[in-house]
Design brief:
The complex is a heterodimer of chains A (792) and B (305). Chain A is an alpha/beta fold and 792 residues long. The chains are: A alpha/beta (792), B alpha/beta (305).
Chain lengths: 792, 305
């Protein structure tokens, strides 16, 4: 099914719009904050949102069926001074000129922001956190070649929620308001803590009215447009319908499929006006929308084509959310990443039935039709997942772009139930946040992408007695000079000590940021939709959610694994050279030792080939990180949870790590999640899955990432697609958490021609034939690339 | 001597184990590529499969010109010239010393003598994938029947383990050898390249009487067979050959054939073993495939492309 003309036109217009900076929100929130000085932070935040929603510029684009936009014009990104005042001022002149993620900024905008932002300078999370950090941790945070990248929630809102959107769509904000009013009336102010509770309920009353007003403004705008003389009769009818819908949702419960989608869009949009976090997740859209779809089909004769057009409009709308990306060198790891608004389709329902339904299908098709970054589509698989569902998903995968990612109920549900954390019913109802984080729907504040810890850097420090080699600074603890590390076990122990020290430093940083978010940045609108907050009378930023934790990621697992294997074999068993000699060679980035280096790459077993010992090292290193992280508690009353995925950080984090014993050169990218080092998995996808399955996935509770590349020749026919279904079923039985298939694009095949060493895993799959893509001669490669182009 | 092992029933000469193979039988399979082939088809896409002995291969793109191979070769068979090392094939005894020292992975030894147990261990590692996809093992080559004793033992081992077995064959084997593996093979993938005996000899080096009669024999004895034909423009796409193919299949009672479009992806491999690819043809277009399909289908044979 192709896009309708309407959606195609909307998409074409969307693609033409340049990104720009919009100062409107900054102006409105500053006005509000100046008026509310001295009031409770809950109230200040609620009133600020109210002031923005009541006064921001609104518009409806020609042809839109679903309405509501983030800033004053298409393509514009708001400035959130409460998180960004310091860095936006620093970067204001570079937004339009920097290399990636450019934003146009007019001189008027610059002048206005320069006038508005100083008010915020001392009120940001960044500023206040830095005032509170202890000197040692502050040094670690500021150091140029830092081991920890914890800045996402320091320089922006937290995001990473799966709000209970289903509850709001069904019952409306009216119900939230009623509940808050009742709880407020029942409050005993003599009880300690009730003061905050009272202010919390009041903040909920404010935002409930604010969202009602916001939607009604769109109703008025639709009527205004409908009444313009140039409006066609057809469009007029559409606009009148839009107006009717906007008068109803999200304050009252939705009745039709379009009302449900509009309600969802309004609330999802408003959380991104309240805060500039990444990764606000839709959760299980197919589960909470199906009742509206079915009812609309039965009662109003909604057709599949009509429903598809609405879903396509919705998928396109998801791409309109723009965040002014913060791309100074230290945080550039997030520079290339999109808004990651995840949507998990299929999988088991809370009571164990197959969740795949017509809405899952509409969204898989919508994602394929619209074919843009967002939404970040995922599927969940379990034993009962049908071939029909998987083939629908593979059709989307085949279209390129790596979506949807595949998540395994069989690994994730037990992981969420570990240590009695969630019940079976709750665990079955999980959704995905951001890239790969499995999260209990509706009531979680998981900070799931709070920081990255550079495991490869920890190994480098362990090989240098804690001294950072680029700077000569004693960065980590003294864990022994190379001369003193006389056994392989001693090397692993030194590495573990470095990990242990830096995990602790990371926790200190994040607990600081977390404390400051609670004090400075309550998010009442989000709190209304996160289960637990109303019951506790507590904002989500202070621990109001049912489930609280902080998720932190280790990056570089495979580089560390392959390096340790080299040290074990070459230094300690074959004794080809001493550890000190090895370190000297690394310090010179293998200069003059290319023959030695390629030997380390080609002649020592690598993780990802289903070879026993090296895979066991990976298992041990993963477990070591998880155990260390899991020791710590967070300030909102939960624990830290470990993840092994990099978002896009493996590239920038690689730039601060020197040469490694695996043969990896200084400054080159680290591996991606738990995927083998690029080009080292020469036995193909089955061996990769078997290797990766050695890692105990249940323990990596915040998620893992496995990227698999498929040569386009592997996915040509229906039969091939069914074979991928089988591969996915085996993946499920092996209890891996996540896999993402990338059908290699023309661009990547071209890249493979230039860098064969990193692309040895590309096998050309033609009957009765055996060859690696990179070993073909140039002409043959060109031929395959050209064919690929034709077939995709 | 290494060569005395050729007849050893316990070891087979294997040049590659390719996992996650999708186009050589049902489900996800591992292909065991056996080395040695009685045919020398001019278009062969696996030239390293032809000689029934170990062979040194050099991938010049991987060479870092370190010169180690030249230094360690006692036969003085390898020399560093220009961009890469070159091998004097008349001197090389395939001892493997240079391969061992080639850190860059440019030099490799094609062909490894493996026991049935070694092959089995490697293949069975992917059992989980065969189970979920109804896949298994496929013996290909080269011509696996050139190592019939080994093949028989290997098939028996997989049969006992309940793993599905496919044999890809050119059919040029003694009836006795074919018979020895017939009941151990779930499916034969059987190549029919040309019906005209003279043309067959010209393009493949052997005539096809044995091939066609073996095929008829397998059919009569009730084996499951998928006949495959690489469609090679200028070689076997003539009206005459396609008609003859359709007639032969119909007369033999073979209901189905799969046409595989010729590709030249094997060309890059010739220089790695000191040979050059002189064959000239082109990949058939979708129209050419459809035309051939229609011609054969005209004889009441089902044609898959």
């Amino acid at each position: 099914m192709a896009l309708s003309l309407r959606v195609e036109r909307l998409k074409r217009d969307y693609l033409k719009i340049p990104k720009s900076v919009c100062p409107e929100r900054t102006r409105l929130i500053t006005e509000s904050y100046k008026e509310t000085e001295g009031q409770h932070p809950y109230i200040r935040r609620a009133k600020a949102l109210q002031h923005i929603l009541e006064n921001k510029t609104i518009y409806i684009r020609e042809g839109e069926l679903l309405v509501g936009s983030q800033a004053s014009r298409p393509g514009a990104a708001s400035v959130f001074p409460e998180t960004g005042a310091n860095w936006v001022l620093d970067e204001l002149d570079t937004f339009a000129t920097r290399e990636m993620r450019k934003f146009e900024v007019t001189d008027e905008t610059k002048a206005e922001l320069r006038q508005l932002l100083p008010y915020w300078e001392h009120q940001t999370i960044l500023y206040q956190s830095m005032q509170r950090l202890n000197p040692e941790t502050k040094f670690q945070h500021g150091f140029k070649y830092s081991v920890i990248s914890p800045n996402l929630n320091l320089r922006g809102h937290v995001g990473h929620f799966i709000p209970n959107y289903g509850r709001i769509i069904r019952d409306g904000f009216q119900k939230v308001e009623e509940d808050a009013r009742r709880m407020l009336a029942e409050l005993d102010y003599a009880k300690p803590g009730s003061l905050d509770q009272g202010n919390f309920y009041e903040s909920i009353l404010i935002v409930s009215q604010a969202i009602k007003t916001f939607a009604e403004r769109y109703a008025a705008e639709a009527i205004r447009l409908a009444e313009l003389p140039e409006t066609t009769e057809m469009r007029k009818a559409e606009l009148q319908k839009i107006a009717e819908i906007c008068r109803r949702v999200p304050y009252y419960g939705a009745r039709t499929f379009q009302e449900a989608l509009q309600s969802l869009w309004f609330i999802h949009l408003t959380v991104q006006i309240e805060g500039d976090g990444f990764a606000f997740s839709f959760g299980r859209t197919d589960q909470y929308l199906i009742e509206f779809y079915e009812k609309d089909v039965a009662e109003n004769g909604l057709t599949e084509a009509e429903a598809q057009e609405l879903v396509d409009c919705f998928c396109l709308k998801c791409n309109e959310i723009v965040r002014l990306a913060d791309v100074p060198p230290k945080t550039s790891y997030f520079g290339g990443v999109n808004m990651t608004q995840n949507m998990a389709l299929g999988g088991q329902t809370a009571d164990g039935r197959d969740g795949y339904n017509m809405v899952s299908k509409l969204f898989l098709r919508g994602d394929e039709n619209v074919h843009l970054d967002q939404p970040n589509t995922s599927i969940r698989v379990y034993e009962g997942s049908t071939d029909e569902f998987l083939l629908q998903a593979i059709s989307d995968i085949k279209s390129g772009g790596g979506k949807p990612a595949v998540f395994n109920d069989k690994a994730i549900i037990p992981s969420l139930m570990r240590n009695g954390w969630a019940t079976l019913e709750q665990a079955r109802d999980y959704g995905i946040v951001g890239c790969v984080e499995p999260v209990l729907s509706n009531g979680t504040d998981g900070w799931t992408n709070a920081a990255m810890l550079n495991m490869a850097k920890c190994l480098e420090l362990a090989l240098h007695d804690g001294v950072e080699p680029f700077s000569g600074v004693q960065l980590g603890p003294k864990t022994g000079r190379p001369e003193d590390l006389t056994t392989y076990e001693a090397v692993e122990e030194a590495y573990n000590k470095q990990i242990s020290y830096f995990v602790k430093q990371m926790v200190i940083m994040l607990n600081t940021w977390d404390q400051m978010h609670g004090e400075l940045l309550p998010i009442p609108f989000m709190s209304a939709m996160i289960d637990g907050c109303l019951e506790k009378g507590m904002d989500v930023a202070r621990g109001g959610a049912q489930y609280n934790y902080v998720g932190v990621q280790g990056v570089g697992l495979s580089n560390v694994t392959d390096s340790l294997k080299v040290l074990k074999d070459v230094v300690f068993e074959q004794k080809k050279l001493t550890l000190a000699e090895m370190v000297r060679i690394l310090d010179q980035n293998f200069e003059g030792n290319e023959y030695f280096r390629v030997g380390l790459v080609n002649k020592v077993e690598k993780y990802g080939n289903n070879a026993g010992e090296v895979d066991n090292i990976a298992k041990r290193i993963a477990k070591g990180y998880c155990d260390e992280v899991s020791k710590y508690a967070c300030v909102r009353g939960g624990m830290y949870r470990p993840g092994l995925f990099p978002v896009a950080s493996h590239v920038p984090l690689g730039t601060v790590v020197g040469a490694l014993p695996s043969g990896r050169l200084s400054g080159t990218p680290l591996n991606d999640g738990i995927s083998p080092v690029s080009g080292c998995d020469v036995n193909g996808p089955t061996s990769v899955l078997l290797s990766v399955s050695r890692i105990d996935h249940e323990e990596v509770t915040n998620g893992t990432l496995l990227n698999m590349k498929l040569h386009p020749t592997a996915l040509k026919t229906q039969e091939d697609m069914l074979k991928l279904v089988s591969l996915i079923r085996t993946f499920m039985n092996l209890k891996l958490m996540h896999v993402q298939f990338n059908v290699v694009s023309r661009e990547e095949l071209l890249a493979a021609q230039e860098d064969p060493e990193s692309h040895r895993d590309l096998i050309v799959r033609v009957a009765g034939y055996s060859a690696n893509f990179v070993d073909l001669d140039r002409k043959m490669q060109d031929d395959i690339i050209n064919r690929t182009q034709q077939e995709l | 001597m290494e060569n005395s092992r050729t007849s050893d029933r316990d070891r087979g000469l294997v040049f590659n184990l390719q996992r996650f193979s999708l186009h050589d039988g049902n489900g996800i399979r591992t292909i065991v590529f056996m080395k040695g082939c009685p045919l020398h088809c001019l278009w062969c896409s696996n030239p390293e499969s032809q000689n029934r002995c170990e062979e040194l291969s050099i991938k010049t793109m991987r060479c870092i010109r370190c010169g180690t191979c030249e230094a360690v070769c006692r036969q003085q068979a390898i020399r560093l010239t220009g961009d890469t090392a070159t091998v004097d094939r008349s001197r090389c005894i395939a001892c493997g010393t240079c391969v061992e020292h080639c850190n860059a992975g440019a030099l490799s030894m094609l062909g490894q003598w493996m026991t049935v147990d070694e092959v089995f261990e490697q293949v069975i590692a992917d059992k989980a994938f065969y189970e979920s996809s109804q896949g298994g093992v496929t013996f290909s080559g080269g011509e696996p029947l050139m190592q019939a004793a080994f093949l028989k033992q290997a098939l028996l081992r997989f049969r006992e383990a309940g793993i599905s077995t496919v044999v890809e064959t050119c059919g040029y084997a003694s009836r006795e050898d074919l018979e020895s593996i017939r009941s151990l093979t779930d499916t034969f993938f059987y190549d029919v390249k040309l019906i005209d005996a003279e043309a067959h000899k010209r393009f493949t080096g052997v005539t096809n009487e044995l091939i066609l009669s073996n095929l008829a024999y397998l059919q009569e004895s009730g084996s499951e067979i998928l006949v495959r034909m690489p469609l090679i423009p200028g070689v076997n796409d003539s009206e005459e050959n396609l008609a003859a193919t359709g007639r032969f299949l119909k007369e033999t009672g073979l209901p189905e054939i799969q046409l595989l479009p010729y590709h030249s992806y094997g060309a890059s491999k010739y220089p790695t073993i000191g040979r050059s690819y002189t064959f000239q043809s082109h990949s058939p277009s979708a129209e050419e495939m459809e035309r051939a399909k229609a011609m054969i289908a005209g004889y009441g044979v089902k044609v898959k492309i």
